[in-house]
Write a structure and sequence with these properties.
heterodimer; A: Cytochrome-c3 Hydrogenase, chain B; four-stranded mixed sheet; 14 helices; B: about 250 residues; alpha/beta; Rossmann fold; 2 domains; five-stranded parallel sheet
């Protein structure tokens, strides 16, 4: 008897942007399994040419609505590296805090609104409002807290306003920081409860292992997010200006988002990669939460990326509290921004929720950008998603089509892809 | 009364405006109580083509996207363009000063994308009303979530929503900000449509005009500021082009 399996998810749901999954199998053998990215290309690198240095971050934050703070920071760091601009210790601390606000917002959105429905067997967070009102309200509350933190530091939740080349246009008051500190302290209990809920459902995450290369920022003294060298579980540390040797972008016909490879045929970035590189730098409560999930480096199950996000959520709360204390001890002061235009080329690397992000600008002596390159974490992950699918799909063929479809969709969702970013995509197309 | 069936779609954009809906936090739950949400790719697996109101985010870059948008227009009785990309193309229109060959080459190099529909782009990025008729506009990059809630409430009640036709300066003064021109900064507030509660000037950053110009900036600009600092409407319109590229004066 001939059996055919055809899966065709045309636009995977509950991910940022448009992606498709195609699986065709016949008589128990996979004929085609493909991750496709049909998202409309957007051309940021082309149209920032000719724009003055001070507009670059406000243009490139528009690459992504979810990680606009991270894009803003990578842009500012690249501009500052190109022009030789130094920033103050206070600016550094406020930027790190802004990055935590974004990671908190993005991670709770992904785990709470996008992944939890799979674990609870529903199509979206909507029915959970009725079935799990207490958990939903806690998730909404944590999301609100993170957004209010972005508002405080950046002047707006999405598309930061205050962050400039060399500093901030406006900074929070000590009173506002104290209020934010209390909100973060109050967030610890609901975070533990959501963590316990995820733990109770973690058995629903497929037990799938595939070794790959994990890449992310690493630093000697902290769980690196804002700064560091490029770290690889295969090849060790590399300086940020060598980023092209790590990413090696290439183009495939099924994706408007570029693909990347380094030591192997693919690599993975994001929360799990950061965890695999930096587990020993976690704060105490975050390390305890990782232990509850039995998450230890090097974990090779991509589905555990969502769990690593829960761990990072806790770590961001703890580190934010430390940073606020340090800012309050130092005392906040209005600082004058003094930027001199200088020609140069510079690279900025930042860990954003989905992984390591690079911006690279060349700026001329009139302060005008003449060339730009942005490498987005979702692009770095596309090839790894494809290879995971190739390894996972053959093991699923005896399942009903709906379950195959769901498992492949869950795989894509685990990466928390940001496809609009990656074109600077999700759909599953079935034929099995 | 049956609840109106509502669907959300997005084209080329950052999806930051749909995030503002999630950012309504608890109020989203109230909104879900009064509509029947039938399609919203980023948040739900279910999908139906049977809807009354379609919310569109993002601009149109390719024929394949224009075709998808035309199908949505056939299905929906009301089309709401929300966010600057849908309303006027936003930052995406910055590519319109280059040829499509140039932008494709700059980003994708010599990759062979000829004949591949994913890369078949129009000469210019288009706001959605260049492809289909739009019934309601919600401006901003990103949208202001309170304004979104107000306009959605109007649409659901069958009222015609109105946008403010006064300048950002009005909100800025109410917020008791120091005028940015006073601080030596440039600001498009005097000619830009209010409705964001002067978000950028509130944190000492000049308005970038993401909500679009006033209906007729030459007559309705906030003249007091222009006169005091000796800037003309034309100068302002020409001065800043992140969001208003290719618009009158820029």
């Amino acid at each position: 008897m001939m059996s055919e399996v055809n899966v065709n998810v045309h636009h995977v749901t509950r991910v940022e942007g448009h992606g498709n999954i195609v699986l065709n199998a016949r008589d128990g053998a996979v004929e085609k399994v493909q991750w496709q990215v049909p998202e409309a290309p957007r051309f940021f690198e082309a149209f920032v040419r000719g724009k003055p240095y001070h507009q670059l971050s406000h243009i490139t934050t528009r690459i992504c609505g979810i990680c606009s703070i991270g894009h803003g920071l990578a842009s500012l760091k690249a501009t500052e590296a190109a022009m030789g601009v130094e920033i103050s210790e206070q600016t550094l601390l406020l930027r790190k805090l802004a990055l935590h606000a974004e990671n908190l917002q993005s991670h709770i959105l992904h785990v709470g609104y996008l992944v939890a429905p799979d674990l609870l067997g529903v199509g979206s967070v909507v029915p959970l409002v009725g079935s799990h009102p207490d958990a939903v309200l806690k998730i909404v509350g944590l999301h609100r807290m993170a957004n209010e933190m972005s508002d405080l530091l950046c002047g707006r939740t999405t598309h930061p306003i205050t962050m400039r080349v060399g500093g901030f246009s406006s900074i929070p008051t000590e009173k506002q920081l104290l209020a934010q500190k209390q909100k973060l302290i109050d967030a610890v209990e609901p975070t533990k409860e959501i963590g316990a809920l995820v733990l109770s459902l973690a058995g629903k995450l497929p037990d799938f292992q595939r070794e790959t290369e994990y890449v992310g920022l690493v630093a000697d003294d902290e769980y690196a997010l804002y700064d560091g060298d490029i770290g690889s579980t295969d090849t060790g540390r590399h300086p940020v200006p060598d980023y092209k040797e790590i990413t090696n972008e290439y183009i495939v016909p099924q994706s408007t988002g570029k693909y990347c490879k380094h030591a192997r045929e693919s690599l993975m970035v994001g929360a799990l990669a950061r965890f695999n590189l930096n587990e020993d730098k976690l704060h105490p409560l975050a390390a305890e939460v990782a232990g509850m999930f039995n998450l230890h480096k090097i974990n090779t199950n991509p589905f555990m990326n969502s769990v690593a996000q829960v761990v990072e959520f806790v770590d961001s709360i703890e580190d934010s509290l430390d940073i606020i204390d340090e800012l309050l001890d130092r005392g906040l002061q209005e600082e004058r921004i003094d930027v001199q235009v200088r020609a140069g080329q510079g690279v900025g690397a930042v860990e954003v929720p989905r992984g390591i992000l690079f911006h690279d600008y060349t700026i001329n002596d009139a302060g005008i950008c003449t060339q730009a390159n942005c490498i987005i974490p979702t692009n770095i992950n596309h090839a790894n998603i494809q290879l995971d699918m190739e390894a996972l799909a053959p093991t699923l063929l005896d399942l009903p089509e709906k379950e195959i479809e769901l498992t492949l969709e869950m795989l894509v969702r685990a990466y928390d892809p940001c496809i609009s970013c990656s074109v600077h995509h999700l759909n599953v197309e079935w034929k099995r | 009364m049956t609840k109106p069936k509502v669907a959300f779609f997005d084209f080329a954009c950052c999806e930051g405006c749909q995030l503002q809906i999630a950012n309504l936090e608890e109020a989203v739950i109230d909104l879900l109580g009064v509509v029947d949400l039938v399609s919203f790719r980023e948040v739900m697996k279910e999908h139906s083509d049977d809807y009354d109101i379609a919310f569109i985010e993002g601009c149109i870059q390719r024929p394949m996207d224009a075709e998808a948008l035309k199908k949505i227009r056939e299905n929906a009785s009301i089309i709401v363009a929300y966010g600057a990309c849908a309303v006027d193309g936003s930052v995406h229109t910055l590519r319109n000063e280059f040829t499509k060959e140039d932008v494709l080459n700059e980003v994708y190099g010599d990759a062979d994308v000829e004949g591949n529909p994913y890369w078949d782009i129009y000469d210019k990025a288009k706001p959605i009303d260049e492809v289909v008729k739009v019934d309601v506009y919600i401006p901003g990059c990103p949208i202001d979530r309170d304004e979104f809630a107000r306009i959605v409430s109007d649409v659901l009640q069958g009222k015609a929503p109105k946008l403010p036709n006064y300048a950002i300066c009005v909100e800025c003064k109410k917020n008791e900000n120091i005028c940015l021109f006073e601080l030596g900064e440039f600001c498009l507030g005097p000619i830009t449509r209010a409705g964001c509660n002067s978000a950028c000037p509130n944190v000492k950053s000049g308005c970038e005009g993401c909500r679009g110009f006033l209906d007729d900036p030459r007559t309705s600009a906030h003249k007091e500021v222009l006169e005091k600092y000796g800037v003309s409407v034309d100068e302002m319109m020409a001065a800043f082009s992140i969001f208003q590229y290719g618009k009158e004066g820029s």
